[in-house]
Task: inverse folding
């Protein structure tokens, strides 16, 4: 199954819940009442996450805790549901199977909400992201996003970008041009490192991840072309989780109304992808 973007280690880390503006006790109680009893039982929301996708989700090297704006959103949502989020770092392509098997109660790992995934799990949308490309500063290998034939391009396994780059390579060969040399890595951070070291000519990933990589490398990288294929991120939830998806949707709506949602995005510098109306299973087409 094609997923979205991330890879991961095996450590488990819980992130502290950030303070959020107070909401009415009635509102919180209504949302908490929608949480299935088996999840309420221990007061925890078990969340699968591939923490190799900064700034969305990553491991803080100083504390070994899972951090990121995606993580902060989940913490705040869990708090509104009367729960504490507990995160487990996992391989990206193992999270949805972990939801269907009951290992996790939510998946929060920059999942693009698409029809293929909706056939297996439900999604509550919370952000809008596209695909972006980056190359070394000055684009020394003259990579053209629309004609990368013969170039060495990096991508993370299990992501929607894998299908994207493979389709582009097939167009190259169909036109009698050399195929794209696709370099697939387990973690996005490995793809970033390959590009900085010159092992690949360019990379593609979700737009906030590419923007952050450019920023964090101190001018060694630059975005090439324009972001495209904008689609919603969604929190993944098992289809056997009762009203949990409606409860999560309600919590996000409250956060959008009280300003705490926008504050989390602004702190990370990713507010350009903010949405105003979270929906259940919002994939297009």
Result:
């Amino acid at each position: 199954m094609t997923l979205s973007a991330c890879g991961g280690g095996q450590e488990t880390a819980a992130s502290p819940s950030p303070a959020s503006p107070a909401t009415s006790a009635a509102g919180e109680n209504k949302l908490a009442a929608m949480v299935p009893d088996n999840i309420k039982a221990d007061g925890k929301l078990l969340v699968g996450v591939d923490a190799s996708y900064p700034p969305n989700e990553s491991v803080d090297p100083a504390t070994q805790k899972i951090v990121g704006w995606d993580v902060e959103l989940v913490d705040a949502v869990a708090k509104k549901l009367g729960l504490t989020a507990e995160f487990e770092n996992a391989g990206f392509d193992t999270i949805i199977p972990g939801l269907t098997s009951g290992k996790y109660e939510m998946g929060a790992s920059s999942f693009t909400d698409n029809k293929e995934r909706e056939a297996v799990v439900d999604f509550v949308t919370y952000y809008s992201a596209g695909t972006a490309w980056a190359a070394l500063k000055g684009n020394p290998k003259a990579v053209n996003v629309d004609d990368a034939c013969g170039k060495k391009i990096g991508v993370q396994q299990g992501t929607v970008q894998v299908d994207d780059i493979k389709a582009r390579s097939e167009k190259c060969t169909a036109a009698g041009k050399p195929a794209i040399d696709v370099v697939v890595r387990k973690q996005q951070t490995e793809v970033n490192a390959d590009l900085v070291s010159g092992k690949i000519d360019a990379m593609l990933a979700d737009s906030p991840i590419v923007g952050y990589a450019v920023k964090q490398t101190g001018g060694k990288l630059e975005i090439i072309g324009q972001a495209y294929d904008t689609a919603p991120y969604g929190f993944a939830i098992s289809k056997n989780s009762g009203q949990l998806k409606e409860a999560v949707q309600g919590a996000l709506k409250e956060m959008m109304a009280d300003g705490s949602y926008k504050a989390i995005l602004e702190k990370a510098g990713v507010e350009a992808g903010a949405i105003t109306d979270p929906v259940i299973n919002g994939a297009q087409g």
